[in-house]
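Let's practice the habit of predicting before peeking. Look at the sequence and jot down your guess about where helices and strands might fall. Then scroll down.
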Amino acid sequence: MRSSRLIISLVLAALVISVSIGTVLATAGSGVVGTVVWRGTIEAREHAEFSGFDLIVRKDIDVVTQSITIAPGGHTGWVRHPGPALVTVITGTLTLYLARDTDCTGQSFTVGDTFVDDGRVTHLVRNEGSEQVVTSVTYFVPVGTDIRLDQPDPGTGC
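Done guessing? Here is the structure:
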């Protein structure tokens, strides 16, 4: 009985330490405000066919639309998502940096540009301009999950 309590205590301590380390290593954003506009669930086996593409839902998913505003000089911190996202720039110009890009070249997107974030790649979005950036982002994620998964700084210097 005593040894099982010790094992449980050690497991709980290890869990607390690992969560704390993950929180310390995660990179927080700065100058960013995200507002969820709506969230809804699409049930499995939905199928929609459009000219040029098919949408097939094999598992229940949440579709979440968020408005994100980034102040001049602001950034999202290093992040990835638990599913793909469609990003449209409403105002300003943002620069997207990928963790795997050790040269920090980044890719800029401006008003009207739309791109797909597949959710698997750690990235940072920065507003390097003098006006605020506003984006509309629609995420496709497992039901009930967070849309943002903070990641540690990859050390690229971006």
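How did you do? The domain at 2-150 is CATH 2.60.120.10 (Jelly Rolls).
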